[in-house]
Write a structure and sequence with these properties.
Low-confidence stretches: 1-10
Radius of gyration: 74 Å
Distance between the termini: 199 Å
Order of helices and strands: HHHH
Number of strands: 0
Shape: rod-shaped
Length: about 200
Amino acid sequence: MADDNVHTPAPTGEGANPETHATDAHAAAPEHHPTPTALGLDAPAWIALAMVLVFAILLWKRVPALIASALDRKIAGIREQLDEAAQLRAEAEALRGEYEARAARADAEAATIVERARTEAEGIVRQAEADASALLERRTRMAEDKIAAAERAALEEVRARAARAAAAAAAALIREKLDADADKALVDRTIAGLGTR
């Protein structure tokens, strides 16, 4: 299929055809179509008119004001949320500070309790050592008293036995050395000594 717009050179000279020249000239000229119009306006004019009309309607219906008020409401909502977030953050920081203070107080109280317990334990140990020392001293004294009492009892027992042995020996000696006559003379002397008093 050949292109209609392709122009082939015409032969020159005697063999040239005048009809061929006319057809070639007509084929070389571009076709000119009339631009469609409506009410005297072409397409770009109608597009411009439609845009102007849309903008007029938007302005008449106050769409920019509505958009601005919607944006203002949105900005106010965002600002309110930011304020609320800032307030929540401040409250959270205050709570954190309070909990840190409580934790510090609890640590201090724990340290105080540990120190008090250590002091009390040392006091209990000292008291126990003192009580044990006193108990040992008391038991030692009691043991010494028992030993002394046992020694005294043993000495008294020894003395009593010695006295009994001496009395028995004296009795035996008296029996051996004194007879009835000697007893009578001893009794008489004793009675005489009583009478002179």
